[in-house]
Amino acid sequence: MANHKSSIKRIRQTIVKTERNRFYRTRLKNIVKDVNTAIEAGNKEEAATAFKVANKQIHKFVSKGVLKKETAARKVSRLHKSVNAI
Fold it and tell me: What is the pTM of this model?
């Protein structure tokens, strides 16, 4: 157990940030899954609209510090490539 005031505060902050990041990572997986489901169904219009939402949300997660910029770029690029392949 932490003995210093600062380390106790750091533990509290870590718990809050971990919960927040878990929420965003789960949301990210669901967004990507929506795009992939539309791609597998072969529905180009639905895939395009799902990709628009995914692109916006992924970049939003970068600004919140959940994802790194390069990771977001890679995910968006792969999704975009898949949508265009339909």
Answer: 0.81
Between CA 15 and CA 1 the distance in angstroms is 15
Give the Cα separation of 21 and 9 in Å (integer).
18
Q: CATH number for the domain including 56? A: 1.20.58.110
Find the angle CA(15)-CA(73)-CA(30) to the nearest 5 degrees.
Answer: 55
Q: Give the max Cα distance, the chain.
A: 58
Domain count, the chain: 1
Q: What percent of the chain has pLDDT over 90?
A: 90
Task: Answer for the pair 18, 9: CB distance below 8 angstroms, yes or no.
Answer: no
